[in-house]
């Protein structure tokens, strides 16, 4: 590392001077030794919420290379670094001192500098020139090798969350993957970070100079640094605490730096849409976090990984204006992307079928026990003394939220005579379902659904339905034919416990998430739609969040194909776009696309 080798302060801190001239409370020494087996990691996470993770030689080499490249970046002149400053329309990049959110408003604003990597695609900001290339190369090599260590932790968490094979599925929602890599530099003065727990599943922290402290049973422990990168610190985050019902507690930590210090931090988050609600155990931490998010967003919804990260980051950012400033120039942090406004005129619309498309409704006594594992929620309601249960397909709420955020109207077109009651029950659970117009079609004849008759004909329409033939022939080109969602069949596959059955369940659990970007990108074509009044679309991605729940990898080939088909560079595609049809893309769209995974 550029600034010379620090002394590893293993177990040796009494008091130290912190940046703003105060004396910090003594932190106890920590004498745990590094481990690598998932059994040892699981045991440590259960008892303390953190441990030291032994690194392989490949991981050490990659960590060293990254420390060196990060130091070269931080050492460079401000003007050059500013060229790589974070921009709201892109991801990651450089954040100057003073931009770090303050988790505790009574603490000073931190003077930490940050270079963040949240995407390996074109939308990631990288510094220019050779030093920029070196940083990119070092960060990507580090991410490549860090996955092996991540797997050890995922296995450990799997054993905590799903000790038996039968309960294995419960852990899958937590299939944590890297979501953000931070290269931090703490100057001596004002370089501290206020106490917090991380919002994701777990975090790796590499520190060659001590400074990281973890609170265990109310006492702060100062953690050992690793001057030779032989180990890193593993911290459990909020998502794991919530989902495990408190079996693992998130590690509350802070930074108290008494010397200039660089650290490398890698967050691993659950899928954006993973609902963090525990199935068993203590739900008080989850409930409190959910209430905080409901209050913050002014809307009620189950707490997903994305919602939790956004809530915590946005609230921390607000603290900066109230906190004591120790840094001379504080530029406002990037906005988190309020829902874009749509211009007046005709809005695009997405029409959803209900049964077997976004939900499966059954009489409550027919719902299989496994339904909770095969849906994002099971919502019950009563009509004429009969109790019904709706298994809501995983990813439905996130899809509705994303569409609304894009300014897309949503309507339901269903043959279920209880369509209104269903939407009322869903609206009580989460207000993204409130006020959705419901069109109940009494006939189950082929072609009984018709956009024109229902007054839903717009210049941009997507129909999401498991049955193509339910629609009149002229509307079928707008139908995105959904894979049929059937919790009873899925419960059968789950219990079969064969590779084939598992694969079917896996496909189902990732299905809506895998097609979401493709569906949303259909509404991105305002630029090439020759309608003057086509709804323009700032889109939720236009404002890249300061910290996102999931790492964005490069687009999959299927997405690239779709983009190309709809892109202005493809004149054929563009000319057809007066009323954009999905049918040309159905081959691609109806297959799950590995969004968030580089399948190339
Ligand atoms: O720099 C460190 O050691 C820890 C940073 C941290 O806690 C964070 O980025 O969440
Ligand atoms: Fe942290």
Automatic annotation (TrEMBL):
Domain Fe2OG dioxygenase stretches: 177-270
InterPro entries in the record: FCP1_dom (IPR004274), HAD-like_sf (IPR036412), HAD_sf (IPR023214), IPNS-like_FE2OG_OXY (IPR044861), IPNS-like_sf (IPR027443), Iron_ascorbate_oxido_reductase (IPR050231), Oxoglu/Fe-dep_dioxygenase_dom (IPR005123)
Composition bias type Polar residues, residue spans: 549-558
Disordered: region residues: 91-110, 535-581
Short name of any one Pfam family annotated for the protein: 2OG-FeII_Oxy
UniProt name for this protein: Fe2OG dioxygenase domain-containing protein
Organism: Pelagomonas calceolata
């Amino acid at each position: 590392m550029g600034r010379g080798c620090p002394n590893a302060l293993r177990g040796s801190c009494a008091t130290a001077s912190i940046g703003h001239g105060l004396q910090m409370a003594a932190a106890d020494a920590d004498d745990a030794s590094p481990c690598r087996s998932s059994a040892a990691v699981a045991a440590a996470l259960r008892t303390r919420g953190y441990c030291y993770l032994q690194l392989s030689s490949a991981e050490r080499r990659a960590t060293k290379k990254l420390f060196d490249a990060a130091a070269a970046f931080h050492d460079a002149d401000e003007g050059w670094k500013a060229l790589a400053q974070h921009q709201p329309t892109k991801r990651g990049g450089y954040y100057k001192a003073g931009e770090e959110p303050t988790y505790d408003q009574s603490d000073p604003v931190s003077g930490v500098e940050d270079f963040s990597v949240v995407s390996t695609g074109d939308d990631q900001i990288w510094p220019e020139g050779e030093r920029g290339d070196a940083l990119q190369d070092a960060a990507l090599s580090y991410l490549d090798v860090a996955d092996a260590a991540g797997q050890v932790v995922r296995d450990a968490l799997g054993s905590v969350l799903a000790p038996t094979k039968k309960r294995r599925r419960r852990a899958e929602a937590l299939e944590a993957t890297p979501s953000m890599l931070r290269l931090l530099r703490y100057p001596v003065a004002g370089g501290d970070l206020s106490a917090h727990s991380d919002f994701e599943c777990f975090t790796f922290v590499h520190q060659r100079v001590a400074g990281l402290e973890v609170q265990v049973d109310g006492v702060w422990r100062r953690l050992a640094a690793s001057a030779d990168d032989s180990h890193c610190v593993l911290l459990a985050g909020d998502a794991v605490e919530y989902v495990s019902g408190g079996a693992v507690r998130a590690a509350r930590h802070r930074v108290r730096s008494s010397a200039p210090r660089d650290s490398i931090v890698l967050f691993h988050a659950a899928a954006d849409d993973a609902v963090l609600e525990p199935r068993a155990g203590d739900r008080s931490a989850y409930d409190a976090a959910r209430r905080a998010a409901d209050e913050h967003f002014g809307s009620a919804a189950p707490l997903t990984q994305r919602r939790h990260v956004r809530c915590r980051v946005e609230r921390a950012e607000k603290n900066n204006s109230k906190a004591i400033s120790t840094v001379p120039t504080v530029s406002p942090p990037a906005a988190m992307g309020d829902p874009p406004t749509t211009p007046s005129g005709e809005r695009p619309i997405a029409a959803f079928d209900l049964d077997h498309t976004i939900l499966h409704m059954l009489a409550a006594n027919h719902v299989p026990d496994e339904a909770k594992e095969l849906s994002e929620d099971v919502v019950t309601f009563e009509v004429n003394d009969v109790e019904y249960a709706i298994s809501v397909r995983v990813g439905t709420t996130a899809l509705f939220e994303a569409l609304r955020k894009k300014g897309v109207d949503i309507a339901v077109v269903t043959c279920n005579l209880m369509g209104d009651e269903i939407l009322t029950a869903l609206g009580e659970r989460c207000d993204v379902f409130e006020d959705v117009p419901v069109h109940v079609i009494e006939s189950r004849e082929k072609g009984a659904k018709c956009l024109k008759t229902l007054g839903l004909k717009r210049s941009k329409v997507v129909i999401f339905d498991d049955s193509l033939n339910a629609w009149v022939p002229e509307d079928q080109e707008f139908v995105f034919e959904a894979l049929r969602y059937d919790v009873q069949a899925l419960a059968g596959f789950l219990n079969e416990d064969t590779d084939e059955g598992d694969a079917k369940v896996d496909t189902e659990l990732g299905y809506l998430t895998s097609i979401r970007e493709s569906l949303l990108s259909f509404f991105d074509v305002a630029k090439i739609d020759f309608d003057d009044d086509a709804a323009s679309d700032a889109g939720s991605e236009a404002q890249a969040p300061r910290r996102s729940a999931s790492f964005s990898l490069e687009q999959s080939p299927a997405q690239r194909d779709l983009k190309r088909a709809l892109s202005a560079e493809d004149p054929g595609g563009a000319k057809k776009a007066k009323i954009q049809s999905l049918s040309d893309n159905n081959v691609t769209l109806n297959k799950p696309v590995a969004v968030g995974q580089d399948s190339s």
